Amino acid sequence: MGALGIGLAGNRSLEELEVDAQGLGPSVDLGPFSKGLAQNTTLRVLELHGCPEGFEGQRALAEAMRTCGVRRLRLGLDYELNYFSDHDQEWCSVLGQSLMHESRVVELDLGAKDPYCERGIITDIGELTSAIRVGALGETLQTLNLQDWYKLPAESVSALFQAVRSSTAMRSLNVSGVHAVGRGGVTSLADLLKANRLTRLEVNNCAIDDAGAAQLGAAMAQNNTLEYLDVGNNDLGPAGVVALVRGLGRRSALQHLIFAETRMHGPLAWWNGGDELDLLLEEEVNFMRRTFFDPRVAETLAGAIERGAPLVTVDPRGYSLSVEACKILVSAMERSTTGRKYTLRARHVVQAWDDAGITSLAEVMCHLNGPRAEQHECQTSFEIVGAETVRPSIRGASMIGVELTAQIVAAGPGRDTR
Fold it and tell me: Which of 37, 130, 340, 355 could tie 396 with a disulfide, CB 3.0–4.6 Å?
């Protein structure tokens, strides 16, 4: 690492460097490497995975960020080897101090890289928050990832959201896995959305409930900048999803809405022995739920599409859509002026998808293959993956002339019969 630092000090061509330090051992000091990095002005992207411990070495790395040319700093922890984690708290403070008065950093990725490990040692990000709120970092930082910092308290999370709201540069924020977002931080998050700063927000697995979703939905009604929102794995029932979507319309900028794996509550939330269906609006709108997709959600999404919301991706993976829910959404897409390509994909089809059901849905789809299809270059396809029960559905849909592609997958590993 020291030799690499010496090389960096005199290098004027390297723009991106990725180092996997897992095999170096905990005795490696980042100090000599950081000294060389501080003298380099051309490196733009630095990724360090499995960083070795040693607070002074980490301090040197943080201080090097003031003078080096790195714009994107991405750090990954190796929890199996347990390097670095004991000093995360101090290192985070030093990084904030270093970037308070001078910053070139546009991306700071401090999220956990292992989905089975959580970066829970840090409970205070005050210095980093201050650097964003009143320091130089707030004038340059565009992307911040603090995924799985699950021990952050609500007051720290609220302070962070307030700092991001005051930033003139921040566009993307990932605080997925930070449970304090839904346990005291939602109000500050809603205020952040009203400020129209962010274009991308990820709050997956943040303990947000229906009441919190209602606050975010009210804020989204005033937002015209956010293009990507991930609220998956939260405590949202149908009422929460409806409240979140209700305010979307022509003024909204939201193109990608993700609430995959969300738990739906109530008697309609259980598996109904029906289908699992993917519905793609334009090129990539996905509906694939294993639990029953509440009709209220379909109607609200359809309303948003009809009002001109620019949605191109809606992803609630795991939900099962009924034929009626699909008809609601397809009809909305038919009336939409923004969509050009539609794809319906059904999986695990059972007898609930009988001839009558599939035919009624196909009748709606036929409109998409009519004159409007030629005008808007609209394409419609239907792909079925299932068992013997798909055959009458294929015949039923074929009766009205809808072209279908059927794929029947035999049971058992490695057996794919087409």
Answer: 355
Contacts of 299 (CB under 8 A, 6+ apart): 328
Helix (H, G, I), strand (E, B), or coil: what is residue 17? strand
Residue 134 and residue 101 in contact, taking contact as beta carbons nearer than 8 Å: no
Q: How far, in Å, CA of 177 to CA of 112, rounded?
A: 10
Residue 397 CB-half CA count within 13 A: 23
Residues contacting 134, CB < 8 A, separation 6+: none
Tokens encoding 364: 């709606």
306 class by beta-carbon count within 10 Å (0-12 exposed, 13-18 middle, 19+ buried) = middle
Sheet order of strands, 276-281 included: 276-281, 341-349, 379-386, 405-408
Distance from C-alpha of 412 to C-alpha of 259, rounded to nearest angstrom: 31
Round the average pLDDT of the chain to a whole number and report it.
73
Are 181 and 209 contacting, i.e. CB atoms less than 8 angstroms apart?
no
Model confidence pLDDT, tens digit, residues 374-412:
444 444 343 333 333 334 444 444 433 333 333 333 333
**103 and 139 Cβ atoms separated by less than 8 Å:** yes
* Cα angle 193, 194, 195; round to 5: 90
DSSP-derived secondary structure letter, 92: H
Can you tell me which residue has the tokens 């347990």? 82
Cα pseudo-dihedral 325, 326, 328, 333, rounded to 10 = 150
Mean predicted confidence (pLDDT) in 197-206: 95
Q: How are beta strands 341-349 and 276-281 bridged, if at all?
A: antiparallel
- Is the pTM higher than 0.90? The answer reads no
Distance CA 91, CA 30 (A): 12
State how far the alpha carbon of 390 is from the alpha carbons of 20, 280, 386, 408, in Å. Answer: 49, 20, 6, 8
Tokens of 59: 């301090």
**Predicted confidence band of residue 20 (pLDDT cuts 50, 70, 90):** confident
Q: Helices H, strands E: what count in the chain? A: 15, 16
Asked if residue 147 lies in contact with residue 202, where contact means CB atoms within 8 angstroms, the answer is yes
Query: Residue 204 pLDDT more than 90?
Result: yes
Q: pLDDT digit string (tens) for 171-186?
A: 999 999 999 999 999 9
Q: How far is CA 390 from the centre of its chain?
A: 33
Amino acid occupying residue 176: S
Q: What are phi and psi of 172, to 5 degrees?
A: -135, 130
CA torsion through residues 235, 237, 239, 241, sign? positive
Neighbours of 79 (CB within 10 A): 18
